[in-house]
Amino acid sequence: MSYYAPDLFKDKVALVTGGRSGIGYAIAETLLQHGAKVCICSRKEEPLAEAARTLSKLGTCVYRPCDIRKSEEVEAVADLIQEEFGRLDVLVNNAGGQFPSLARHINDKGWNAVINTNLNGTFYVSRVMAERFFIPQQAGNIVTIIVNMASGFPGMAHTGAARAGVENLTKSIAQEWARFNIRANCVAPGTIISSGLDTYAEPVRQLLDQLKEDNLMQRHGTMEEVANAVLFLASPLSSYTSGITLQVDGLDHLHANRMRLVNLFNE
Ligand SMILES: CCCCC/C=C/C(=O)SCCNC(=O)CCNC(=O)[C@H](O)C(C)(C)COP(=O)(O)OP(=O)(O)OC[C@H]1O[C@@H](n2cnc3c(N)ncnc32)[C@H](O)[C@@H]1OP(=O)(O)O
Ligand SMILES: NC(=O)C1=CN([C@@H]2O[C@H](COP(=O)(O)OP(=O)(O)OC[C@H]3O[C@@H](n4cnc5c(N)ncnc54)[C@H](OP(=O)(O)O)[C@@H]3O)[C@@H](O)[C@H]2O)C=CC1
After folding, report:
1. Number of folded domains in the chain?
2. Ligand 2 pocket member 250 (CB < 6 A)
3. 82-105 pLDDT, tens per residue?
4. CB distance 204 to ligand 1 below 6 Å
5. Is the pTM of this model over 0.90?
């Protein structure tokens, strides 16, 4: 059940990066359920095509494989959107990820993989979609998924650094592009039950149970709770809001036990 009007995104076109799985899939699904036409992209063609097939039962959903770290592949996604829809109204930068490691054990390749994905990739997609659609249209909306890294992110320093960069980038482009009627905001999820969490093995799995006990609401968040926050920021319901980060974390940004993360690897 939804509290939003079913036609909130009627005649609107949205791109969700990483829309084949987890939170991105839930966002794509919610946008479709509220009338949007959706494009999803990610690296792995087969699961991406399968996700688009399933989502198409809810409305128009197209896909194109793309590594957001390669700006030429991002341009190809823009080409598809231009051919299929001739416009873009909403960009949801959701693609991202990292691996758990103490900072001093992250090698150059691992550091660059995470920075390129989360910071550079998010920038490439935002710039390309603004240049190709939002600025010429004099209208656009960017919502970027980051993480809760307000007090640093021990155990995942690479992603903390990248997402802090993205949050600051969002504040800059929100100001530079306000004159083009473009808004840009972030959503910072806490620990959300998703396919992403399934990628973690011990000792992170055990940590997830502890993080649930620490949470003041005594639970992890749901993908729908993140999708609902994205819907708010992507819609005219938030028309005077830009450059902010909306925390969807059951208060973890005020009350999180960072020692759990520091001690994760029993160093
Ligand atoms: C504690 C609660 C946290 C809750 C908050 C956050 C939750 C989430 O974000 S859930 C979402 C999780 N989903 C993902 O993370 C999926 C996406 N992740 C990835 O695709 C990779 O982690 C990536 C970001 C590193 C990108 O992958 P790719 O470019 O394909 O890179 P490779 O797999 O080839 O790895 C490159 C390089 O990175 C180092 N490395 C990768 N994985 C690990 C690892 N598990 N441990 C240590 N180092 C790792 C390594 O240097 C790799 O190079 P090679 O050694 O040559 O393989
Ligand atoms: N689950 C959680 O607790 C939290 C998640 N987040 C963030 O939310 C977002 C979604 O995570 P979640 O759904 O949980 O995890 P998933 O691992 O399911 O989602 C990650 C998605 O990003 C895509 N992706 C990864 N790298 C690239 C790339 N270089 N180019 C294009 N697509 C890429 C993946 O598809 P493919 O492999 O096909 O490329 C996948 O669809 C991520 O940014 C994550 O860090 C933030 C806070 C908490």
Report:
1. 1
2. no
3. 999 999 999 999 999 999 999 999
4. yes
5. yes
